[in-house]
Write a structure and sequence with these properties.
Elements lengths: L1 H15 L10 H16 L6 H9 L20 E4 L2 E3 L2 H10 L7 E5 L5 H7 L4 E6 L2 H13 L5 E5 L12 E6 L8 H5 L1 E12 L5 E9 L2 E10 L11
Parallel strand pairs: 3-4, 3-6, 4-5, 6-7
Antiparallel strand pairs: 1-2, 7-8, 8-9
Helix pairs in contact: 2-3
Length: 238
């Protein structure tokens, strides 16, 4: 009886502290998430246990519009408004794994969008700094991340092309929008030996997911696979 009362109290407390926009997790949704990780992400070659654990833990259904919650655990990009999308789960895992992150790392993300990728990063690293150029998305994702209890994510509304200079240098940088060159301000804010991953190529066509390694004043690049991201706006389009 006492255990039942405590459980009811816990559930009521948890529900009262959720935003109206947050869809509570359920065993059915957790199973869908586990199935996605096992049957798609692991099967396609992602093996980093820390990344897999983050993908299992973060409730992707909270980061999509409620009208499409039923599609949250499909391995596909989904619309989130403002002409933007939440990335395909496999691509989120691939980009995250590509940065070879460690627990003490500080990471800059360009393009907060829904906040989902920032949440995945926050499960792995010490601090996440994330910038979103679209004000409405910035406001929505900031509130959602706070409601979900992420305390190691700092958000900013602005043009990510210029990065977050006062918080630099970063161990890793992730750009989640297509751009036809590596933005020089971001390279400058990356630690020597640090990694930057981005969809590099024609912003209005297909791009190559590219890993950049900073080496002193220079850098090397390695193409990983073809991808399709929405264009990076702001200074990148000039």
């Amino acid at each position: 009886m006492k255990q039942t009362i405590l459980l009811i109290f816990f559930l009521s407390f948890f529900a009262s502290h959720l935003s109206a926009d947050v869809v509570p997790d359920t065993p059915r949704l957790q199973k869908a998430r586990d199935d996605l990780v096992r049957d798609t992400i692991e099967r396609r070659g992602i093996s980093d246990p820390v990344v897999l654990a983050a993908m299992r833990d973060v409730p992707r259904h909270c980061f999509v519009p409620q009208r499409i919650t039923s599609k949250a655990y499909r391995d596909t990009a989904l619309p989130i408004g403002e002409g933007q999308t939440i990335s395909q789960p496999y691509v989120v895992a691939l980009m995250t794994a590509g940065l070879k992150l460690k627990g003490h790392d500080r990471v800059l993300e360009i393009g907060t969008g829904s906040g989902y990728q920032a949440a995945i990063l926050a499960k792995i690293v010490k601090d996440v700094y994330t910038i979103e150029i679209k004000k409405k998305l910035h406001q929505t994702s900031t509130r959602l991340l706070e409601d979900l209890g992420y305390t190691n994510i700092k958000t900013r509304h602005g043009d990510g092309y210029f990065g977050w200079p006062e918080a630099a240098p970063f161990d890793a940088i992730m750009i989640t929008a297509a751009v036809n060159h590596v933005p020089p301000p971001l390279l400058k804010q990356l630690k020597d030996g640090g990694l930057l991953i981005l969809p590099l190529g024609n912003p209005f066509s297909y791009q190559n997911l590219t890993l950049v390694v900073k080496k002193g004043e220079d850098y090397t690049t390695r193409s990983i696979t073809g991808v399709l991201f929405v264009p990076m706006t702001g200074r990148a389009m000039e």
